[in-house]
Amino acid sequence: MRIISGEKQFHIEDKTAVAIGKFDGVHMGHQKLLKHILDKKEQGMKATIFTFDPPPAVFFAQMASGNNKVSHNPDNNNKGKNNTDRHEKMLTQLLTRDEKRRKFEKLGIDILVEFPMNAETAHTMPEDFVRKILHDQMNAAYIAAGDDLSYGYKGKGNFELLNKLAPELGYRTHAIKKLQMFGRNVSSSFIKEEITQAEMERASELLGETYYIGGIVEHGKRLGRTIGFPTVNLLPPDEKCLPPFGVYFSEVRIDGKSHQGMTNIGCRPTVSNSGQISVETYIYDFNEDIYGKYLEIALLTFHRKEQKFSDVDRLKKQLELDLEAGRNFFDYER
After folding, report:
1. Which of 122, 205, 309, 332 is exposed most, by the fewest CB atoms within 10 A?
2. What is the pTM of this model?
């Protein structure tokens, strides 16, 4: 997959079938849209995604607040309580840039354009966006997007303008209606609501796959190994949308293989007061060195909230109960 990132001036020689959107999560609605451009590959077009980096909502929220940090609430003490406020949820993302790139490549996308969103590009007039970027630079022969598409300065561009310019510029358009599930439009904000309530099963239905956290395995303090519970550790970036702190049963994907796991998301209050958020996973019946490897932790279901125990022995006893509950969960799921 060719990635064009951070460049305002570029040129694509081949005819392209372009999908425009934020694609946060690449959820079921996005997949419906992407199918249209992937089908055009049979006609010799390059399946191409146009998206902004950072996403417009994130850019304008940062401009308004002067703050680009997102914090997760370590005091979240029940499944139903969100761990981010409304502003923070706007800044978090279902997929990080790296996760999104890996997802697009897996789907068969040929070209990904991550167009820079900044004060200058935000002032691009809608017609200039269509003529100079979609037509001149991207060589678009087919353009698909949600029927609520907006682009250009103050979001004034819409499908009406796209269709008006189509005969002159020689491309076709397709407006995709919003997909509905559970009586609502499928959207990233809807999915974030479910995740921040630890409703992982429902979030998975909306996404079309289990919600996951991807990353490179980091070296931890190896405390788990000393008490008989070795874990693999990921440090999620600030922008990653996380569920409430707690223990989850998970699927661990490494080198194309899946393993059963138990994952703790949080700050490890029993053994650390650093406040560092980590994703630590015990992998059942696994004893391989995977430091430095990329893996994905898919969160299947919420088990319990994160707790601070009076000592490590009490923590160990609880982990033994958690591991047994996990084995029962996976046995039932078979």
Report:
1. 332
2. 0.86
